[in-house]
Amino acid sequence: MLHVSLLVEALRARPVLMFWIAALSQAILWVLLPTLIYAAPPGEVPLMLATGHEWTLGSPAGPPLADWLGEIAFDLAGHRMFGVYLLAQACVVVTYWAVFALGRATVGARHAVMAVLLMVGVTAFTVPTLDFGPGVLAMPLVALGVLHLWRALGETRRRYFIAVGIELGLLLLTSYAGLIFVALIALFVAATRRGRAILRTIEPWIGVLIMIVIALPHLVWLDRAGAAALARLTGLSRLMVADGGALAWLRLVGALAAAHAGMLVLIVIAGGVRVGPRAPAPAFEREPPPPLAKAFVYYFALMPGLVATALAAVLDAPLPFGKVGPLVVFSGLAVVMAAGDTIRLYRQRIVGVAWLALLVAPLAVTLAAVALGPWTLAVDLETGRPAAAMAAFFTDSFQRRTGQPLRVVAGDLDNAGLVAAFSPDRPSLYLVGAPERTPWVAEKDMRERGAIVMWPSADTAGTPPAAITARFPDLVPELPRSFERPVQGRLPLLRIGWALIRPAAAAAR
């Protein structure tokens, strides 16, 4: 008698419920864990918040939509990172839903759930969703755009071209790499007979007009500010002509393939590798998908990664989206599509355990790093810095001495970025070592409005580093301030040197 696990029963009887349990469980865990254990945000989230707080139409980092949404989420949560973490996981859930919806329309609900479950083997280790930014926001926009393109093209519901136009416009407001998907979608539509026929109707062109209108404000800003952000595109003329470029491209493709290691583990376990021919395995059947559906899924699973890695190799730059997330959205669906119309699930219980392990392992590693890292390896984690205490001290110091709110904080991203984000005054951020990344603050603004200048201090005198001394030669350093981390372990106290620039009006008294 063939015994089936609870996983198999859920896949057969309630595939939609199975999808929501899988998607929401991952999202809830990744919202709660960092909210409870992180004292400071990871990666370049402080710079994202500082950029979003200025509400510019663009920045050296690129289009502004991710910065705006991050700032809104942060404000709605009462200046707590919970809002940003929730926004990031909402992006993941919407991405999964779009993949599930496309899979449901092409391979059926049961196989679509399998595709989403396989995606845990990609996103768990290789998509750092807590570091919210353009790469994370691009995932749902890409997934929704491709889903609605299938509705418009594969199901001939042409009104969905309006949704495609909206999503591509928002994608262009998120990252310049959105141009990759705009080009790939245009190419696919033009290359298919059905697509060429639909281009004779009005709906696709309405979608194009909507996309341009949404992206227009940033295009106007880009025209006024200059196209320095696109300077690397001059390297396109060298497209794959040098051996070094070809080797770099192969390395990037290999790295992109390595991002699927977790998925490969699930495929090997569930796919019956090294099992006997009579091994019991429940079968999940589907109706054969139409040829257009196969071409559609394979195209959008493979081409974005190939094009993005080629551009990265040619331009000698990181992957255009900054993270691999938007490039691997449809990998699981492509695997399920290639598996055939009948999929047999071997080693049911082991598959369930392996999936849970892939889901929980990154969480366990994160928790162990935060709780044990300072005690064992004396690792100074960026997420372990006392952001709230630092912001409170420097904000209070400036207010007491000047009688005015703190308007500018200058220094490095690791320290000044935290004060800029967590200070109740929400001052503007000025990066001393890379002022071009914070063009909204000029040195004259700091002289007029006052500022706190801060730096990591290696001595008890609080001697400023050479870069700060060169930029502010008349700076008078204060006694350094030491802060204790939430998990101090064997680390030394975090010592911050600082100085105060008084506002021009206050200094004149």
Topology, element by element:
Blueprint: H1 6-13, H2 15-37, H3 45-54, H4 65-76, H5 82-106, H6 109-126, H7 134-153, H8 160-172, H9 178-191, H10 193-198, H11 203-225, H12 243-258, H13 261-270, E1 283-285, H14 291-315, H15 331-338, E2 342-344, H16 348-376, H17 387-402, E3 408-411, H18 416-422, E4 428-431, H19 443-449, E5 451-456, H20 466-471, E6 481-483, E7 494-501, H21 504-508
Parallel strand pairs: 3-4, 3-5
Antiparallel strand pairs: 1-2, 5-7, 6-7
Helix pairs in contact: 1-2, 2-5, 2-6, 2-16, 3-4, 3-18, 4-5, 5-6, 5-7, 6-13, 6-15, 6-16, 7-8, 7-9, 8-11, 9-14, 12-14, 13-16, 14-15, 17-18
Notable features of this structure?
509 residues, 21 helices, 59% helix, two-stranded antiparallel sheet
User: Which term fits the overall shape?
Assistant: globular
Strand order, largest beta sheet: 4-3-5-7-6
N-end to C-end Cα span: 91 Å
Mean pLDDT: 86
Order of helices and strands: HHHHHHHHHHHHHEHHEHHEHEHEHEEH
Number of helices: 21
Q: Structural class, judged by helices and strands?
A: alpha/beta
Largest sheet: number of strands, sense, barrel closure: 5 strands, mixed
Report what the structure shows.
With 509 residues, the chain is an alpha/beta fold. The protein folds into 2 domains: 6-225 and 232-366, no CATH class; 385-508, no CATH class. Helix content is 59%, strand content 6%. The protein contains 21 helices and 7 strands. It has a 5-stranded mixed beta sheet with strand order 4-3-5-7-6. The protein has a two-stranded antiparallel ribbon with strand order 1-2. Residues 231-243 have low confidence and may be disordered.
